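#onboarding

Welcome to the new folks! Below is a worked example of what a typical request in this channel looks like: someone posts a single protein sequence, and someone else replies with the predicted structure as tokens. Don't worry about understanding the tokens yet, we'll cover that in week two.

Example request:
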Amino acid sequence: MTGIAVVSGSASGIGRGIALKLAAQGFDLVLLDLDEAALAPVAGEITAQGRRALALRADVTDGARLAELRAQMLERLGAPTVIVNCAGWSVIAPFVETGAAFWDKAISVNLTGTIALTRVFLDDLITANGGRIVNIASDAGRVGSTGEVVYAAAKGGVIAFSKSLAREMARHNITVNCVCPGPTATPMLLVQDPKRIDALTRAVPLRRLAEPADIAGAVAYFAGPDAGYVTGQVLSVSGGLTMAG
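Example response:
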């Protein structure tokens, strides 16, 4: 399966891994991230594979800017066939030590941003009578996570959003699925206390953190031809950590 895939949060970590995996499968990429400078090397890796890459600075909480980016994309590459919502934000902190500004950011980036980016490109998929939407949630949204209360709430919202949208979009031949990573070796996690990281690693039955490529494989499945009859599903990629969740 080929086409044009939009991946938010693609400058590093899981988003970068997803973008490179989809490029290897034949997709051209629209790379979106707040860190525009960090997008350049990712775009270079993709063009080295013989695929096209359009790197654009994007704040998923800015709906007007997202509409502008869609116009640029349509002019320079064409309409999308796959949307991957991977932009996210989290800081480990006890709930009682957080406040309204913290909650607003966690919800706006992790949940509202997913909703906004999806809506911006959804009409293109409807017009094409087909497409794939893959939302990156978290196992925190499935089973909870100490120190990530509002983040978990937002990611739980992403799961519910994905399932509900899948029901509405089925008549347009658009599938909507959700990937829930467990602890993953990304910059967002690796800045945490090494003792916490060690404890997470020991708790995983496979005895290692996920790598971005592990998550990317699940996304590639949902974006590919073998998942044409799969929609509204939530796939945990956690090394067995949440197998009983």
